[in-house]
Design goal:
Largest sheet: 8 strands, parallel, barrel
Number of helices: 14
CATH class of the largest domain: Alpha Beta
Distance between the termini: 39 Å
Order of helices and strands: EHEEEHEHEHHEEEEEHEHEHHEHHEHEHH
Length: about 450
């Protein structure tokens, strides 16, 4: 029997995805844009809408990074608003475990799960840079080797808060017309190296019990964290074989945590460009990538690796012959601008070799090395290729990242989705009432008997 494909939508805002110059590109902060994308995703029977969030605007060369969205509304506020205009779509928010506290985050997600009827999801992320930490009252930051340790304890603590309500503590008193509460309801006490809290959690158990947990780390520690605690993991692998290798690796880790293969889904982020012919689609895709990576943007990306001002370089010229500046990154500030390469000098060498082999300019090289996984072609060929990835265990579904906001999913919803449905690999109706149901995840274990709740 064929595997069923899962689909999700990403509303960009902290990357170079959106083509700002396209006249169809509308507001990135008005609620109408979020609503349009969410309604399209629900019309196409997507599992969830995913919002990314940064805790501080990035800076480069002392100026606000030109690809950040200034004025982006708070994630919980947007998701709560979307809960009122959708019925089935899951609502996933990126919330940081480094600069927040378990009680407030658990309370916000439990409330969202109640308001949405069981559709909340939490993408657990970390930060370690002091620049972001300056925004918070205690400042500071965590060394990189401690960020997943805190994230794991943060998540386990939040689970204790969610599970402090069993679900049967509130009963109606028919004589008085009031509700009676078991005095033990919401009681918690948690103490470890990161948290020392005790009291009562004041939000009763929500429809899902806990939000669906997402994780987006690709490091070994990130994969292990996902295998131990997440319901789904996001990845950026761009080829079939790389996806299959990643899929096999995270799935093999699950038994070590007492979990089965069906308890963790794998979602790569992907873009889709459609055309009446494959040739037309590839022409459109090349045009979109050049719109996404202007000459100025290409230089900004290059500066992040070289760690120095390169504004005097011609983006249509060759890469610099000198090496990156070693040590702490001082040209780029902010969580999403920290160095993604552990050995910048080695990466620069690889980029030079690639540029020489393909005769690429700086801009052309950046277009190539920053591209995400893409499906390019006719609706029929895209549907076939997406299905191939899922059936060959390169993933369980996809998070679609449109290059236009808010109408970037409309064409996919109208052309590709019906073809997947015809193949019998994609739903025609939502099967359940909660996000966990629609993702096909196993029911949560009883919090009173689950070893996964142990502190």
């Amino acid at each position: 029997m064929s595997k069923q494909i899962h689909l999700a939508a990403h509303f960009p805002g902290v990357n170079n995805t959106t083509v700002w110059s396209d006249p169809r590109s509308l507001s990135q902060i008005e609620f109408s844009s979020f609503e349009h994308l969410a309604r399209t995703a629900e019309r196409a029977k997507f599992d969830f809408l995913f919002l990314a969030e940064g805790l501080r605007l990035r800076e480069q060369g002392g100026k606000i990074y030109d690809l950040d969205v200034v004025g982006r509304p708070d994630t919980f506020t947007v998701l709560a608003g979307l809960a009122a205009v959708t019925e089935h779509l899951g609502l996933a928010g990126t919330i940081n475990s480094t600069f927040n506290e378990p009680y407030e985050v658990a309370r916000q997600f439990a409330s969202l799960d109640h308001l949405s009827g069981g559709r909340a999801a939490w993408n657990v992320v970390t930060s370690w840079d002091a620049f972001t930490g300056e925004n918070f009252r205690r400042g500071g930051f965590l060394p990189e080797d401690q960020r997943y340790e805190r994230a794991e304890r943060f998540l386990r603590t939040a689970w204790e808060l969610f599970d402090s309500w069993r679900g049967d503590e509130i009963v109606a008193d028919k004589e008085s017309g009031t509700f009676l509460t078991d005095p033990r309801a919401g009681s918690f006490a948690h103490r470890d190296a990161h948290f020392d809290i005790a009291g009562r959690f004041n939000v009763p158990r929500s429809p899902q019990g806990r939000p669906v947990i997402f994780q987006a780390g690709d490091s070994d520690a990130g994969r292990e964290f996902a295998a131990s605690a997440a319901d789904a993991i996001f990845t950026g692998h761009g080829t079939l074989q790389a996806g299959k290798d990643f899929y096999a690796d995270v799935k093999r880790r699950l038994p070590g945590h007492g979990r089965s293969r069906d308890e963790l889904l794998v979602f790569p982020a992907t873009t889709v460009v459609l055309g009446d012919t494959d040739a037309e689609a590839h022409e459109r895709a090349a045009h979109i990538r050049r719109q996404q990576v202007s000459g100025q943007t290409a230089i900004r990306f290059l500066e992040q690796l070289w760690n120095r001002d390169l504004s005097d370089l011609d983006p249509d010229g060759p890469l610099p012959e000198f090496d990156p500046v070693p040590g702490e990154n001082t040209i780029a500030k902010g969580r999403a601008s920290v160095r993604r390469h552990r050995d910048p000098v080695a990466t620069a060498r690889q980029w030079r070799e690639l540029a020489e082999a393909k005769q690429l300019s700086i801009r052309e090289l950046i277009i190539e090395v920053t591209a995400r996984q893409s499906f390019i072609g006719t609706a029929s060929s895209v549907a076939a290729e997406m299905n191939r990835f899922v059936q060959e265990d390169a993933c369980d579904g996809f998070i679609l990242v449109p290059h236009l906001t808010p109408g970037g999913l409309d064409e996919f919803a109208d052309t590709v989705v019906p073809l997947l449905q015809e193949r019998g690999v994609y739903r025609t109706e939502y099967p359940g009432g909660t996000l966990r149901d629609n993702l096909g995840l196993p029911p949560l274990r009883d919090p009173r008997h689950s070893s996964r709740n142990a502190s």
